[in-house]
Amino acid sequence: MSASAIDLCRALLRCPSVTPQDGGALGVLEAFLKAAGFATHRVVFSEPGTPDIDNLYARIGVTAPVLAFAGHTDVVPVGDPARWRFDPFGGEIAEGAIFGRGAADMKGAIAAFAAAAADFVGGHGSGYAEGKGSIAFLITGDEEGPALNGTQKLLAWAHERGERFDHCIVGEPSSRARLGDTIKIGRRGSLNGTLEAHGRQGHVAYPERAANPIPLLLRLLAALTAAPLDQGTAHFSASNLEVVSVDTGNPAFNVIPAQSRARFNIRFNDLWSAESLAAELRRRAAAAGGRTDGVGYDLTFEPCNAPSFITEPDAFTTLVAQAIRDKTGLTPELSTTGGTSDARFICAFCPVLEFGLPGATMHMVDEHVAVNDVKALAEIYKAVLERYFQPAD
């Protein structure tokens, strides 16, 4: 199994699948799964103003329970290829590591769980050989992009076909320092906002004829950030607002600008929804005295498709953690840290965990993962399958 995981990982890395291009990656995976006996479907989704995205759904088995593996073959741009030690789409192996864009995020994990599933099915694993379950794959090419034509629509498409999932593992690079040290059981939400103060342009020598929007903008930003949004919850850290830009677009020293704008992002926990969080920030801005003579403001928010979510630890969490312990000797931390992932869509359909390779080099120049980690991850995924489909005594 380990050799096929490495070979499949290298084949996937050789596909230049920078969002929204597939680069042949889904075809490589589809061929591998078909050879293992999976029925496969390629589905293209569209959205006005966004590129069409190819997705892959695969399944073997016709009965419940259904364990799904989910992930994405698209990757972020490589930057300057000349700065890479090897061709970023070469899948080279050196010093015990596989190099390439997407090795950590997350072609290595896709290769590991595909190889594990093929080995499990081919070996007539405990329980599965008796027809006591099914394995499914949900693979998109739109996770690193807008995430409009990927997993969210693939889930809806599958649901309309009558597909149901009992549990799901997403192969995002959840591990921190060592393979197996962390399982993601949820994610914080993400909300983007813009605060724009409007004034009246004029000469700095005649401030009485103008209305400077910058003092208002600063006062409002202070009001939004002065008090903590919360103190955190049992599984989440405190919600956090970060101002990411402040801009007037004013190149002159002798002109009071007509407007000034700030943009911010909030990573929020399960105490909030996007709507309740926006309402709280509007309340804080209004309480700060948001309007003065000649100056006003607008506080707006981008549409949010990234709510916070939590999969409460249960027997499935214990099963996955035990498989990790048996292979690595580590007891994984249950975490909700990090950015967003497609698990935010899957949680509406079934309990979902994220477990994959260490992500120390993801999105970086010379992205790479240890060969032994890919092999070990495949063995862990296979152990999960064996436990999951083990017949009841």
UniProtKB/TrEMBL annotation:
BP GO annotations: diaminopimelate biosynthetic process; L-arginine biosynthetic process; lysine biosynthetic process via diaminopimelate
State how the cofactor is bound: Binds 2 Zn(2+) or Co(2+) ions per subunit.
Q: Which organism is it from?
A: Methylocapsa palsarum
What are the names of the required cofactors? Zn(2+); Co(2+)
Q: Which gene encodes it?
A: dapE
Q: Locate the residues binding Zn(2+) 1.
A: H72, D105, E172
Q: Which reaction does it catalyse?
A: N-succinyl-(2S,6S)-2,6-diaminopimelate + H2O = (2S,6S)-2,6-diaminopimelate + succinate
Pathway field of the UniProt record reads: Amino-acid biosynthesis; L-lysine biosynthesis via DAP pathway; LL-2,6-diaminopimelate from (S)-tetrahydrodipicolinate (succinylase route): step 3/3
Keyword tRNA processing in the entry? The reply is no
Q: Where along the chain is the active site annotated?
A: D74, E143
Which is one GO molecular function term here? cobalt ion binding
Q: What does this protein do?
A: Catalyzes the hydrolysis of N-succinyl-L,L-diaminopimelic acid (SDAP), forming succinate and LL-2,6-diaminopimelate (DAP), an intermediate involved in the bacterial biosynthesis of lysine and meso-diaminopimelic acid, an essential component of bacterial cell walls.
- What protein family does this chain belong to? Belongs to the peptidase M20A family. DapE subfamily.
Task: Give the protein name, as stated in the record.
Answer: Succinyl-diaminopimelate desuccinylase
Pfam families noted in UniProt: M20_dimer (PF07687), Peptidase_M20 (PF01546)
* HAMAP family xref list: DapE (MF_01690)
EC number(s) per UniProt? Answer: 3.5.1.18
